[in-house]
Structure formats: structure tokens, C-alpha cells
Protein: Pseudaminic acid synthase
Amino acid sequence: MKTINIEGIEIGPNHKPFIIAEMSGNHNQSLDRALEIVEAAAKSGAHALKIQTYTADTMTLNIENSDFKIDDENSLWNGQNLYQLYQQAYTPWEWHKPIFDRARELGMIPFSTPFDETAVDFLEKLDVPLYKIASFENTDIPLIKKVAATGKPMIVSTGMATVAELDELVRTAREAGCNDLILLKCTSTYPATPENTNISTIPHMKELFDIQVGLSDHTMGTGVAVASVALGATVIEKHFTLSRAEGGVDSAFSMEPEEMRALVIETERAWQAMGKVTYGSTEKEKASLKFRRSIYVAKDIKAGERFTKDNIKVVRPGYGLEPKYYEQLLNTVASKDLNVGTPLSFEELLR
Structure:
């Protein structure tokens, strides 16, 4: 599996998971808060800070009818008009540079999700190092071609996409000039539930397209993300906020700083724990072999005396004969005097 290098950070199976903090609209229309989110993400250990590049006009039409209104009692945004929602959630384009500059100062990779061609042109002027395609745009073939033509790495969320749609996406991106493509398993509900996340798709998708696969995670907590790493996820994206209690369009399913810190630590531990297929003692375990059980003299034994269940026992530590010889030793004869606490070896047996 090809390793992808983005501004000196290696992404791939042989490297710790690449963690993306997604700000989305959690800045609540305050640049100061946006910069605080950047700083908190950096302190939490996230490797990248992502925002979204659109305006209400590039996302939808300013129309008041049922098509443009969210009518879903299970949605966080039920009853809202799409245009008004995007007005509330968008990140002003003049904020992009100060946000990106602050992220770079703090050692993170800043990038964005463009939602139309004008956003790509704008982000190219800011020299973003990679692009993200959102789940709802993964069938927008013109947009995928536009982004792929930049030649920069692409990360694409796969929410709702069929295998046929993903095949078209991957072929389109590669043919248009993208050599570094990562797919993210994604469930496009907000929040998502673990039982609706189906991360078993990750290794299947990886094999199907011979491509790196990660997780865009809308569940609460770290459990799903940690489990996905064990299934081969190389990238984890989580929405991020300073405090869910302070509200915001995506705050209800966003991580707080301490949770993000735990995610960074635990996903790296999961990656480290995967290791390789191995049996027997590892180098670190060899010192523990002495704590296995073995056969010891439990009472003083005279030369010529038979070994019995009373005078030999299987105990720790492991300096004597292995327990598998215990039954064979019973009723055999000691070749010499043996004191209690002596580990038995074949030398103590009468030949």
C-alpha cells in the first residue's frame, strides 16, 4: 500500500493514524473563536485542521419551499431552511488565511473541503497541500475532476456511495491527475451510531480499490475510531469544538479538546498494538519465561526414593522440567538426595 507524504507527514499502514480535526461551523461566526479552536486542536495533538469552503449561494438556492427545507425529526437541523443554515455555518473566505497561518505556526497541516469550482480556485491561491471531498459531493464528478486536476492528494468521504459510484469516483480522480487518493468510510448521519457505522467495510474497501482507507467518524466518543484503526484505517477525521455546551451547528457530535487528546493517544496505541502475526515469546517476553510453571521437589527426597504426588509438584517458577513430564516422573526413582525447592531435571532421575 502506497505511503502518502503531505508536508513531511507520512500517511500509511506503517505510520501512526493521521488525525484530522474538522472545525466546520463550530466557530459560531467568530474569528477569535476559530483561532481558539485551531490552538486547542494543536494542543490536543491533531495532525491537521480542516475547514469548509463555501457560501450559501455556492451550496444551494435561496428559495422558500419544501425542497429547500429540512424535514426530518431525527435531524439536528430539522425545520431549517438550507440557505439560512449555510449562512449560519459557513466560514468567511477572508478568515481562511489567518486560520491556515495559525495552524501552520502550530505545526498542523491546514486544508479544506471545497464545494464548487470557485472554492477550488480560491484554495489554490492559498496553496493548500491537499483537498477533502464531502460525502454529499462524492458523486459530483465535475468537482472531483476539478480537484484531481490540481495534482494534490485527495481525501474523499464515502457516505451513501454505492460500489459503482465509488468505482466511478476513483477512476475519475485517477484519470484527472490525482495520484494520492484516500477514501474515508463514513456514515452520513449526525450524529451516527456505532451499530450503523459498519467499519468492517474498511478492509473490504481497501482491498477492492487497492487504496488507503480511513474513517470520517460522526459517532460520539473514541471507541469506533480506535476499532477502525485495528481494521486498517490510516486516517481519522472528527468534528472538533471547544465545548459542546456552547452550541454551534455541529457541536452536538463534535469532540472537545480532552476527547481529541484521548483519540490521538488511543488510536496510536491501537496502531502500535496491531504489530505483525507472531507466536512464541517476543523479545520483551523472554524475561518472563522463568515465571512459567515447572516441576520442583516439594519435600526432601532420598536417593532411591520414588517420586510421588507428595514430594514433587508443578509450581512457579520455570527452572525445572516442563509440567508435561509430571505424570511420567511419578513412581520413577531419584538418583540422588534432593532437597525441597530443587528444580527437577533429567539428571536427578535414576537411569
Observations:
- Residues 257-274 form the longest helix (18 residues).
